[in-house]
Amino acid sequence: QVQVVESGGGLVQPGGSLRLSCAASRFTLNSYTIGWFRQAPGKEREGVSCISKTGVGTYYADSVKGRFTISRDNAKNTVYLQMNSLKPEDTAVYYCAADFFGCRLRPDFRSWGQGTQVTVSS
Description:
Layout: E1 3-7, E2 10-12, E3 18-25, E4 33-39, E5 46-51, E6 58-60, E7 68-73, E8 78-83, E9 92-99, E10 111-112, E11 116-120
Parallel strand pairs: 2-11
Antiparallel strand pairs: 1-3, 3-8, 4-5, 4-9, 5-6, 7-8, 9-10, 9-11
Protein backbone atom coordinates (compact mmCIF):
# COMPACT_ATOMS: atom_id res chain seq x y z
CA GLN A 1 0.00 0.00 0.00
CA VAL A 2 1.37 3.38 -1.06
CA GLN A 3 1.61 5.75 1.90
CA VAL A 4 2.11 9.49 1.78
CA VAL A 5 2.42 11.89 4.70
CA GLU A 6 1.73 15.63 4.64
CA SER A 7 3.39 18.23 6.82
CA GLY A 8 3.87 21.98 6.99
CA GLY A 9 0.40 23.22 7.78
CA GLY A 10 -0.32 25.86 10.39
CA LEU A 11 -1.78 29.25 11.15
CA VAL A 12 -0.72 32.16 8.95
CA GLN A 13 -1.92 35.71 8.45
CA PRO A 14 -3.51 36.81 5.18
CA GLY A 15 -0.80 37.56 2.64
CA GLY A 16 1.59 35.12 4.29
CA SER A 17 3.22 31.95 2.99
CA LEU A 18 3.46 28.29 3.89
CA ARG A 19 5.18 25.35 2.28
CA LEU A 20 3.51 21.97 2.49
CA SER A 21 5.47 18.76 2.06
CA CYS A 22 4.34 15.36 0.86
CA ALA A 23 6.76 12.59 1.75
CA ALA A 24 6.71 8.88 1.09
CA SER A 25 8.24 5.84 2.63
CA ARG A 26 8.73 2.44 1.04
CA PHE A 27 8.24 3.72 -2.49
CA THR A 28 9.68 6.28 -4.89
CA LEU A 29 7.44 9.29 -5.31
CA ASN A 30 8.57 10.01 -8.87
CA SER A 31 6.91 6.77 -9.96
CA TYR A 32 3.57 8.41 -9.24
CA THR A 33 1.48 11.38 -10.20
CA ILE A 34 1.05 13.52 -7.09
CA GLY A 35 -1.87 15.79 -6.39
CA TRP A 36 -2.72 18.29 -3.69
CA PHE A 37 -6.34 18.65 -2.66
CA ARG A 38 -8.14 20.58 0.04
CA GLN A 39 -11.40 20.40 1.91
CA ALA A 40 -12.94 23.24 3.86
CA PRO A 41 -15.67 22.65 6.47
CA GLY A 42 -18.99 21.98 4.81
CA LYS A 43 -17.48 21.86 1.33
CA GLU A 44 -16.48 19.12 -1.05
CA ARG A 45 -12.87 18.12 -1.54
CA GLU A 46 -11.36 20.04 -4.43
CA GLY A 47 -8.21 19.76 -6.49
CA VAL A 48 -5.55 22.40 -5.92
CA SER A 49 -2.55 21.26 -7.95
CA CYS A 50 -0.97 18.26 -9.60
CA ILE A 51 2.49 17.31 -10.81
CA SER A 52 3.30 14.61 -13.34
CA LYS A 53 5.70 11.73 -12.74
CA THR A 54 8.45 13.51 -14.62
CA GLY A 55 7.76 16.84 -12.97
CA VAL A 56 7.40 18.50 -16.36
CA GLY A 57 3.63 18.79 -16.22
CA THR A 58 2.06 20.92 -13.50
CA TYR A 59 -1.56 21.94 -13.14
CA TYR A 60 -3.38 24.38 -10.89
CA ALA A 61 -6.90 25.26 -9.96
CA ASP A 62 -7.85 28.74 -11.18
CA SER A 63 -8.27 29.89 -7.59
CA VAL A 64 -4.56 29.33 -6.81
CA LYS A 65 -2.84 30.09 -10.12
CA GLY A 66 -0.03 32.57 -9.68
CA ARG A 67 0.05 32.04 -5.91
CA PHE A 68 0.83 28.33 -5.42
CA THR A 69 3.71 26.35 -6.90
CA ILE A 70 4.08 22.58 -6.91
CA SER A 71 7.48 20.94 -7.26
CA ARG A 72 9.39 17.70 -6.77
CA ASP A 73 12.69 17.01 -5.01
CA ASN A 74 13.53 13.47 -6.07
CA ALA A 75 16.63 13.34 -3.90
CA LYS A 76 14.42 13.88 -0.85
CA ASN A 77 11.55 11.81 -2.24
CA THR A 78 9.27 14.75 -1.49
CA VAL A 79 6.72 16.90 -3.33
CA TYR A 80 6.17 20.46 -2.15
CA LEU A 81 3.34 22.94 -2.42
CA GLN A 82 4.60 26.48 -1.94
CA MET A 83 1.66 28.70 -1.04
CA ASN A 84 2.11 32.48 -1.23
CA SER A 85 -0.28 35.40 -0.85
CA LEU A 86 -2.57 33.25 1.24
CA LYS A 87 -6.19 34.29 1.67
CA PRO A 88 -8.76 33.36 4.32
CA GLU A 89 -10.60 31.32 1.69
CA ASP A 90 -7.53 29.07 1.41
CA THR A 91 -8.32 27.77 4.90
CA ALA A 92 -8.84 24.01 4.68
CA VAL A 93 -7.36 20.62 5.38
CA TYR A 94 -4.83 19.93 2.64
CA TYR A 95 -4.29 16.41 1.39
CA CYS A 96 -1.56 14.85 -0.69
CA ALA A 97 -2.49 11.94 -2.94
CA ALA A 98 -0.65 9.55 -5.25
CA ASP A 99 -1.81 7.71 -8.34
CA PHE A 100 -0.48 5.74 -11.29
CA PHE A 101 -2.48 7.66 -13.87
CA GLY A 102 -1.97 11.10 -15.33
CA CYS A 103 -2.51 14.49 -13.75
CA ARG A 104 -6.01 15.73 -13.08
CA LEU A 105 -7.68 17.74 -10.36
CA ARG A 106 -10.47 15.28 -9.65
CA PRO A 107 -10.21 13.81 -6.14
CA ASP A 108 -10.18 10.22 -7.40
CA PHE A 109 -6.55 9.37 -6.64
CA ARG A 110 -5.71 5.95 -5.30
CA SER A 111 -3.72 6.71 -2.14
CA TRP A 112 -4.24 9.55 0.32
CA GLY A 113 -2.49 11.04 3.30
CA GLN A 114 -4.18 12.08 6.53
CA GLY A 115 -4.13 15.79 5.75
CA THR A 116 -2.62 18.89 7.31
CA GLN A 117 -4.61 21.89 8.51
CA VAL A 118 -3.97 25.30 6.96
CA THR A 119 -5.66 28.27 8.62
CA VAL A 120 -5.38 31.76 7.17
CA SER A 121 -6.59 34.33 9.67
CA SER A 122 -5.58 37.59 11.30
